[in-house]
Amino acid sequence: MTVAVEIVSFGYLHDEPPAAHLTIDLRHHFRDPHVSPELRYLTADDEPVRAAVLGTPGVAALALATAAAVEAFASGPSAGTITVADGCAGGRHRAPAFARALAELLLDAGHDVTVRHRDLDKPVVQR
Predict the structure, then answer these.
(1) Does the pLDDT of residue 87 top 90, yes or no?
(2) What's the pTM?
């Protein structure tokens, strides 16, 4: 069954999480590329950031588990778009890289997927 899925990546330090059926918090269990000076000012648009995030133990398993959760929502009796929000601290590294990986999994499963990066283009949060 094909369903519409919207994935929204965001940064908790910019604003409240968007409304979603599933909200994935990547802040506490996965190393932040922001701590590496060579990655801090890059984004998930840059291959070194994507490699750092997707190479982190547990991230791929979480993407697979989230895709399975979307499938569970899709199998329910109600129709409509399923929204997944995934957030990290600033919304420039972990969240958008994870969102893209999840989107690939869901596209491969035949779903209609849109991805929006709420905070990707915002300035680096100085912390």
Answers:
(1) yes
(2) 0.96
